[in-house]
Structure formats: structure tokens, C-alpha cells
Amino acid sequence: MKPCWLVVALVAGGALTGCGSNETSSQQPHTSPESASTVAAPATLTARQYQPPKQRNQGGRPDVVYDPCTYVNDETIKALGLDPASRERDDFLAEYTIFDCKFKSTVRRVTISSGNITMEQERTRYAGMIENLTVNGREAMIVREPEEVPESCALNMRTDQGIARISTLLTVEGLYQKLDRCDGIVDIAKAVEPTIGKGK
């Protein structure tokens, strides 16, 4: 398992692609060509620095299709009080895949992730720390780790390939304002969930 990947500040760095480009993002739909192993879905952002890297999954894990860094547009991020200019990829690529897209605001850091780790694996890993709920009708759970990073919170949603996750970490300003660590996480998930795609 990827260590501490629910913590925005501690996400392990993965392979990055196209980071040298200064190309600005576009909101025009874009369809990636299909490969033999992946059914591509339309991306909302086409700037090269936001494109997902090649996956190298093992053990029969499916390729991750939902890519938050290209599917969640700037308008959605602005509406959540986050800075679109802070958009940054931080993927994990090994025998399984986690696509991470990080954003910032004055009170919290937010990572939107998509991976081919299953909800069942997450339920086992975080047993005793879970609050079950649904987000726009999709199976979900909030994870509150008790001691390791008490200012962090995570919300997992089931997808066809595994999970989509919202991870939040309060900043010094957020702690000063005495925000609860899970404040706003359900609202973020409700705004992000439609970008996964119906039935996916």
C-alpha cells in the first residue's frame, strides 16, 4: 500500500509528465486515443503538464480511467474556494496506480485522487475509523485517523476501477480558525463526484 497517501503533505512523489511546459489549460473537451489496455475518456484539460502518465499495473489490476487532474475543471475548483493555479500532479506508479491532483487554499490543502485500490481494501485498512455515507448516490466513506495526523481527513468513493478519494489537510490558518478537520469534505466530494461519470 502507498504510505500515508491520504495526507496531502505526505503523498509520495511519483512519475510526473510534461512538467517543463508553460502551456495554459484549455476547457475544450478532448478525447484521448484508445490503447489496447485502456478505454480512454474525454479530458477537460489538455495542457501537457496535466496529462496522466503511463500505467504499469500488475496482478490483474485494471487501468485507472478517471483522472482528476484533467477531469475536474477550473470552474469547479474555484467554486470550492481553491486556487486553480495551484493545480499540481503527484502520481504514484507501481504495481498499482494512484493519480493525485493537489490544490491549495488559505485554510486547507486538498488532494483529489483516483486509484485501483479497492473499497474493500480501504475498509480493512481503516477498520474502526470509518463513517459510511453516500455522495450523490455513490457509496462512500469518511476516514478519520485518530492520532497520526489529527488535522487530516479523507473521503473515499467507489469507482469501477477502485476508489476516488478526497483528502484534506488543514493549514496553520485553518487550525487558527479552529476548523474541524473534515469541514467541507462532503461538499467537495459532491462537487467532484459528477466528474467521475455516471455508472463509473
TrEMBL record:
Where do the record's region annotations for Disordered lie? 20-39
- The signal peptide annotation in the UniProt record is 1-20
Checking InterPro entries in the record gives: DUF3558
Could you list this entry's UniProt keywords, alphabetically sorted.
Signal
By its UniProt entry, which Pfam families does this protein fall under?
DUF3558
Q: Where is the composition biased (Polar residues)?
A: 20-38
Protein name (Swiss-Prot/TrEMBL)? DUF3558 domain-containing protein
User: Which lineage?
Assistant: Bacteria, Bacillati, Actinomycetota, Actinomycetes, Mycobacteriales
